[in-house]
């Protein structure tokens, strides 16, 4: 089945598909709502879905089809290959993604791939996904120290939570042991902490240090 709001484009895709081996077109829709209704009526194996359509766009139509009619797979066929189009469509449940410069062989291959349980992605989309996966993750936002403790006091608290002694903290921060003790006294006074065990729990609770074995993903 084909879903595209532009009549000329929709009819052209239907005509092209009719010439391809192993493909039978059972219906065509002009927007997302009509696409969902036709899937309910015709139960096609695959929908070639445009994204930018009135009333109900392709991503929302894909989400509804995959939720209500899981026997129908969706391959996006669109002009757009930007992240704002690609990733919402894949998250909605599309198993394939092609741009409208795809040839007939590429469309057939994508349809066969999704019917066999694979992803029907064009080489361009595969490259974009790999690029996205290889991009470094954004650094976590800095945590504002609670209870009025300073950034340096929070740093000392984090090192306490890591099990460092006052002498080791002093060496790590290139300050004297007396200065470390002053920071500890200040942060204990501000937070009401009684001992280092409480300090460790406080640091974990307020996100000042990652618990052992945790990982940022």
| Distance linking N and C termini | 38 Å
Rg of Cα set: 28 Å
Report the mean per-residue pLDDT as an integer: 86
User: Low-confidence parts lasting 5 or more residues at pLDDT below 50?
Assistant: 213-217
- Give the CA-based shape: elongated
How many distinct beta strands? 6
Question: Regarding quaternary structure, how should these chains be classified?
Answer: single chain
Strand order of the largest sheet: 2-1-3-4-5-6
SSE-based structural type: alpha/beta
How many distinct helices? 10
SSE ordering: EHEHEHEHEHEHHHHH
Helix content: 40-55%
Describe the fold and architecture.
With 217 residues, the protein is an alpha/beta fold. The protein has helices at 7-18, 32-42, 58-68, 83-92, 104-115, 123-134, 151-161, 166-173, 177-191, 196-205, and strands at residues 2-3, 28-29, 46-49, 73-78, 96-99, 120-121. It starts with a strand and ends in a 12-residue tail after the last helix. Residues 1-115 form the Response regulatory domain. Keywords: DNA-binding, Phosphoprotein, Transcription, Transcription regulation. Residues 142-207 form the HTH luxR-type domain. The modification 4-aspartylphosphate is found at residue 50.
């Amino acid at each position: 089945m084909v879903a595209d709001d532009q009549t000329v484009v929709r009819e052209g895709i239907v005509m092209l598909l009719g010439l391809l081996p192993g493909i039978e077109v059972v219906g065509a829709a002009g927007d997302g709502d009509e696409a969902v209704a036709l899937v309910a009526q015709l139960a096609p194996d695959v929908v070639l879905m445009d994204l930018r359509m009135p009333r109900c766009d392709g991503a929302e139509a894909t989400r509804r089809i995959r939720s209500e009619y899981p026997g129908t797979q969706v391959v996006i066929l669109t002009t757009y290959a930007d992240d704002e189009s690609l990733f919402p469509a894949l998250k909605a449940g599309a198993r394939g993604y092609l741009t409208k410069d795809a040839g007939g062989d590429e469309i057939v291959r994508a349809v066969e791939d999704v019917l066999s349980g694979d992803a029907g992605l064009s080489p361009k989309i595969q490259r974009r996904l790999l690029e996205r996966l290889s991009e470094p993750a954004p650094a976590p936002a800095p945590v504002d120290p609670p209870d009025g403790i300073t950034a340096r006091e929070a740093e000392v608290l984090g090192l306490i939570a890591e099990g460092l002694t006052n002498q080791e903290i002093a060496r790590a921060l290139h300050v004297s042991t007396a200065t470390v003790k002053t920071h500890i006294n200040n942060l204990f006074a501000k937070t009401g902490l009684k001992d280092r065990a409480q300090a460790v729990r406080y640091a974990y609770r307020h996100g000042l240090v990652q618990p052992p074995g945790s990982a940022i993903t």
